[in-house]
Every structure is written in structure tokens, then in C-alpha cells.
Amino acid sequence: MSRLTTEPLWRMVALARPRGARFALGVLLGALATASGVGLLATAAWLLATAATHPPITALSVAVVATRALGVSRGVTRYLERLVTHDAAFRTLADVRVRVYERLARTEPIRRFRSGDLVSRLVNDTDATQDLLVRGLTPPLVSFLVGAAVVGLSTALLVPGGLLLATGLLLAGLAVPLVAAALGKGPGARQAAARGELSSSLVDTLYGAPDLVAYGAMDQAVRRVKRADGELTRIARRDAALLGFGAGASALVAGLTVWATLLLGVAAVEDGTLGPIPMAVLVLTALAAFEVVAPLPAVAARLGSVRASGARLFDVLDTESAIGGTDSAEILPEGDLALKVRDLRMRYGTDEPWALDGIDLDLEPGRRIAVLGPSGAGKSTLASVLLRFRDPDGGTVELGGTAITAYPADEIRRAISGVPQDPHVFASTLRENLRLARPGCTDEELWSVLERVRLAEDVRAMPSGLDTEVGSHGTRLSGGMRHRLALARALLSAPRILVLDEPTTHLDPETRDVVLADLLDAARGCATLLITHDLTGLSEMDRIYVIVAGRVVQQGSHAELLGTEGWYRRAHGLASR
């Protein structure tokens, strides 16, 4: 793969390819605006110098009209340039955001990044695309076009003057930006990482505040936030100093070039090779010409930061999907579907041990099975495979006789729904949290499913009922209520198979028994797979699979397993003496 296809800056520019015509128009309008500014000062110089010789007023009329026209065209073309380039940049940015959201909607990339860092990638690093296209693409092209035209005009007036101006523009528009880019490369790369670290530490501190206070770790977390903020502040100061250096160096080159042009012009007038009026035009044109390259040092100084942001952005976009069948158009057949798992193997890396090492299980329509085992046995890995968050590394998972990898992930998730260990509750109302599963459902349907999960009475007791705000991550609900709400949401999607992944985690024993009993009762009639390390409710299961170290070590009914020596019997404290 060539460097151009892997360099983040080139890849960010390539994102604008569908709107290349708009950006080209923006460059043309920007060149006209800048040329109008240079022409305005050059015409004004000619007008003032000529007026000093007291010519007839008719001799100045064309210049007067040209001055007014250039003043108007400068403002109009600058406005149109901003309108066109920003419109193209915002449309490109919208496309990039859609690509990022579509990539993250597959869910598995999210697990690679901390939440605060992911927010920084979604906001700051994605916005860097707009900065590059608006500030890093148009100004250099405009500078090249207008700078070449101005040097040509100056050369036509006085060849040494044109060469001197070309040298000054190359120094201010190329040498100074290159130095600024080199100096800003390291701080720019650190700035993107520091911004992500500050965002991560802030989010972790805010959302983990109750636990941090409870364990006396809040001061340590605050110090971490202060360190991240201090690092970002130091980098920002370095960036400000670099911008000051670029502006100062550019101004110094401009001043020296104008003075040298003035001295050269005076000498040319004295030896008769240049007239006084052309000399005035030459000097003021040189002064106006540096407007062309003025933005470039600041643009170059930020390239390091933009490049680092681009690398972080493409780190998300380039994350390979952990699931196949995403382009498939296959549709699951109607009716009940049997789930069959054969020799399922899965691990999280080529050098990692097998999380699942040859699992076999069956779930017939309307039946209930439990997958039991200690923490780390591979139970939640099984859930992630069934819900299409990961694909098997070996073996098969069939639904209705066809491998689930043959279907789009969303098609499988419509048939297999679940309640995770820590169900996510959005910072909205109860109604909106429920309607995520079925946006068009009525309030009557919502109350019906709430009755089914035994949450309706609690909701009716709330002052706002279904319009009650649940708070960030559902903090205004108890743990049991969050699990019931998640189950209600799952049932609204009318799944054919329901996966309950550790639904009673973090609940006290009394609440745990009640919640699990209600969950199983609400799921009655639906094929249910209960994943748990707890021994509660297993007598209600049609079949129990005991998994240890990724393998099924026992299977059978509750009574059969109690009557057989093994892990299940020992877990119940009934080992033979």
C-alpha cells in the first residue's frame, strides 16, 4: 500500500473527493477575492501617484471606477468563497460522521476504546476533517495561484523587483510554514492524545463518582484530571507560541521584502529604468502580496495536530468487523426457530486461550435452558456470539437449520434478543427507552409489557408515569427496575429466542430471587437461554449446561445433575462423603 493511501492527511483530503467541484469553485472564488485585494491596493497606488501629477480628472475616472469595483468584488467573492467551501466542508463532515456512526453501530469497535476517548474521537478528531478542508486545502492553492500572478505583474514592472518578491513569498509562504510544521509535529501529535486522555479521565471521574467517593479514591481521580488538563494546557501554550512564531516570522519577511523593494525601486527611478508611478505600484503591490501567504504558517503549525486527529479517526473507521454476513440480504423464515450450537470455538486473539472450546447445545422453540459456570468460564462469550457481536472461530451456530453468519447481524438480533449483565438505560424517559425496541408502539402496548414484567405498578406510582426521566444510565431506577425495563424492551421486539445474561448480577439475594422469578415468568412461551453463575431458579429449566474453562463438563435436568457426582452437585454442597 502506497504512502499516499495510508497517510492520514491525504486520506482526510480524499474524503472530500465527492465534492471536488465545490472545493475547486471555492479555490477559484478565494483566488478572485485575494486578487481583488491585491489589485485594489495596486490600483489605489497608481491612482494616488498619478493624482499627485495633477492630470485631468478624466484620466483618473477609469482607476476610480476600478477601485470601487475591486472593493465590491473583494467582499462579494470572499463571502461566496466562504459559503461554498464551508458548505462543501460541512457536507463532507456530515458524511464522515455518518461513516463513523455506521461503523460504531456494529457495536464491536466500541469495546476497543474508553468512553471518554471515544467521545473525543467522535467530536474533536472528526471535526479536524473540516479544519483541514477549510484552512488547510483552500489557502495553499489560493496562495499559489495569486502569488504567481502577483510575481508576474511585479516582474513586468521591474525584473529584479519580481525576483525579490518571489523570494520573499517563498520564504514567507513555504520556508516559514515548513519550519512551523516541523516544530508543531510533535506537540500536535501529543495534543490529540492529551485531549482524549482529559476527556476519558473526566468521563470516568463523573460517572464513577459514587464508587470513587465510597472507596476514598476521588482525590486520586481529581489529580489525574488535573494532570491531564495541565498537560493539555502546556501543549496549548506551545501551540500558541508556535503560532506567534509563524506570524512574526512571516511579518518580518514581509517587512524586509517591502523595504528591499522600496530601495530597489528608488534606485531604479534614479537610473531611469523605472518611473515614479510604476515604482509606487511595485512597492504597494509587494505589500499587498503578503496577504496571499499570511494564513499559511498557522495552517502548517496545526498540521501535526490534524494529522494525529486523522490517525485517531481512521483508527475507528479501519477497525475490522468482527462479524460476517453484514452485506447479506437473507431473511429469516417465519415461525419458531430451533437454535443448534455445534463444536463452537472462540478466542479473542491468535495468542489467547480458547474462551469457548467445543461447545454443543440445543434450544428448541418454547424450551428453557441454562448455561451455568464460574466467572471466566466463557458464558458471556457465548452470549456475544449468539447476539452477533462476534463470529465463531470454529464450529457452527445454526438458527432454523442455517448458520447465523449467513444473515445480517440485525436480522439475527430481531430473532434473538437479550438482557445483558448491566443493561444500558438512556438518559431519557421510560417511554422513549421502551420505544427503542419498537418505535411505533402505543401506550397501551407499553403498559401491557410493563404489566408482563411486573413494573407497571411502580411506573404508575411515579408522578410522570411513562414520561418519568430515568436519569443518566438509569440512576433514578433501582437495579431490579433497570433489569425489568431491559426485559420489557427486549419483549417489545417480539424475539423468538431470549438470552438472559447474568440478569441478577449486583442484586441482593432477596431481590435477586424475586427479579429472576419475574423475568422467567414474563418470558414464558419464548425460547429462553439463561446464562448465570447463580444457582437460583435452575429447577425451572428444561436443561442445564455446565461450562468450565470453555467446555461443557455436564448437562442434564436439575434433578439429573443433582443425582450425578460432578461440578453441579458440588456447587450445591451435596458432594459425596
Automatic annotation (TrEMBL):
Domain ABC transporter: 339-574
Stored SUPFAM superfamilies: ABC transporter transmembrane region, P-loop containing nucleoside triphosphate hydrolases
Chief location category: membrane
Domain ABC transmembrane type-1: start-end pairs: 24-305
GO cellular component: plasma membrane
Annotated transmembrane regions: 21-48, 54-72, 141-159, 165-183, 242-267, 279-303
Biological process according to GO: cell redox homeostasis; glutathione transmembrane transport
Keywords for the protein's UniProt record, in alphabetical order: ATP-binding, Membrane, Nucleotide-binding, Transmembrane, Transmembrane helix
Gene Ontology molecular function, alphabetical: ABC-type transporter activity; ATP binding; ATP hydrolysis activity; ATPase-coupled lipid transmembrane transporter activity
Bilayer topology annotation: Multi-pass membrane protein
Transport found in the keyword field: no
Compartments, record wording: Cell membrane
PANTHER family assigned to the protein according to its UniProt record, in alphabetical order: ATP-BINDING CASSETTE SUB-FAMILY B, ATP-BINDING CASSETTE SUB-FAMILY B MEMBER 6
Name of the molecule in the record: Thiol reductant ABC exporter subunit CydC
Species name: Nocardiopsis ansamitocini
Higher taxonomy: Bacteria, Bacillati, Actinomycetota, Actinomycetes, Streptosporangiales
